[in-house]
Amino acid sequence: LAYYLDKIREQPELNAFNEVFVSSATEQAVAVQEKINAGKAGRLAGMVIGIKDNILYKDHQTTASSKMLDGFIAPYSSTVVSRLLAEDAVIIGRLNCDEFAMGGSNETSFFGPVRNAADNQRVAGGSSGGSAVAVQADLCLAALGTDTGGSVRQPAAFCGCFGLKPTYGRISRYGVIAYASSFDQVGTLTSSVSDAALLMEILAGADAYDSTVSAKSVPVYSEELNSPGKQRIAVLKETMESEALDPETKHAILQAIAGFRAAGHQVDEVSFDLLDYLVPAYYVLTAAEASSNLSRYDGVHYGYRNLQAENLNSLYKKSRAEGFGTEVKRRIMLGTFVLSAGYYDAYYQKAQQVRRLIRERVEALFTNYDLILTPVAPTPAFKIGENMQDPLVMYMADIFTVLPSLSGIPSIAVPLGNNQAGLPLSLQLSAKHFNEGLLLAFTAGFK
Ligand code: GLN
């Protein structure tokens, strides 16, 4: 713990932590040491873990990097935090992220952008940017993030770590601040596959507090990391031919593919012609869910309140106008619009139908293939400020990560080394529902 606390102190410019839990982490570390001495330590004994600032930890502040939750203290712990603590992990602090996890660069945070440790002028990615940089810069051993449309995988890719988004329903969302509930999943950011496997074993599985979690038994992932045998891999052709794809990223992925072929895996180019529909369907659906989820921040129940309001209506209006940032407001308005009478059928319902079609098409691919391969993002980490003027540019960069999110399948960002400029490159592998064991084993065999 002292090692990581020093590291954090040495690199304040990264802005990865919204708060370091010095006293509770120190107490926990002492308690764990006693358990270790007594030979009674849990499976994560002493593992120092950071959590994204939208995951509740009892008696600690949680803000989702929003002014709206200023001063909000979690009255209970999320299931994921309880499970980490039950296995004697040490939670070192809460990590910066995009406001309410809405963004892909960590620039919508009320607390400012996180800086990529590979190049301080560049973004960390988002929304779990603090989680990615904390692992990249060795500020903790591993971190939890949340992934609605890429928020674990894309920052992991920008920072050269492994980012796993499990199957929708694999991990409890109890005590995780909701963005789009039919997409949100907690995921892991780690510097090794074995850390991801161990964390998954502990985090996954049924929870009486979240009825959307599957009751399926949880494999002992960390003991199944040996070679999974020959796999059939579908490379989605249109994603590799996309004009937006950076040449060095493409080259690194093609080299990895050559390596898979040489190792005896079957790799085929497969056409996926629904690419143009992914980003529109994702943003209509997630904005709709967000507008509903964020209606609870009314200036009365949580966090920020405008104290000059004269009546209830102006309390709502002023608190929400002042508490939420621009991107969050944009999505609340978009979501309210697509759900409103007269537009519901044309936008929300249509997007639901498109989601169903995408999911069916993806499931059909798995009759002939075990893994789907695409890039994670079209480019490596971009410059801070570069994409902030135009929300559509930012949204389009989510094109590859939203495919697994719309289909609910597990997906992992795998580091591929750095480009000429020293920026991390990455590829994305996805598998059938509840097949994160294969993703982990395949990735372990390749790295
Ligand atoms: N960039 C995407 C968005 O802004 C993904 C965010 C996420 O996964 N939380 O919605």
Automatic annotation (TrEMBL):
Enzyme active site: 52 (charge relay system), 127 (charge relay system), 151 (acyl-ester intermediate)
Its EC number(s): 6.3.5.7
Entries under SUPFAM superfamilies matching the protein: Amidase signature (AS) enzymes (SSF75304)
Keyword entries, A-Z: ATP-binding, Ligase, Nucleotide-binding, Protein biosynthesis, Transferase
Residue ranges constituting the Amidase domain according to the UniProt record: 1-440
Catalytic activity: L-glutamyl-tRNA(Gln) + L-glutamine + ATP + H2O = L-glutaminyl-tRNA(Gln) + L-glutamate + ADP + phosphate + H(+)
GO molecular function: ATP binding; glutaminyl-tRNA synthase (glutamine-hydrolyzing) activity; transferase activity
Transmembrane region(s): none
Superkingdom: Bacteria
A GO biological-process term: translation
Cellular component terms (Gene Ontology): glutamyl-tRNA(Gln) amidotransferase complex
Keyword Translocase: no
Pfam families, per the entry: Amidase (PF01425)
Function: Allows the formation of correctly charged Gln-tRNA(Gln) through the transamidation of misacylated Glu-tRNA(Gln) in organisms which lack glutaminyl-tRNA synthetase. The reaction takes place in the presence of glutamine and ATP through an activated gamma-phospho-Glu-tRNA(Gln).
Subunit structure: Heterotrimer of A, B and C subunits.
Family: Belongs to the amidase family. GatA subfamily.
Protein name, UniProt field: Glutamyl-tRNA(Gln) amidotransferase subunit A
Native source organism of the sequence: Pedobacter antarcticus 4BY
Gene behind this protein: gatA
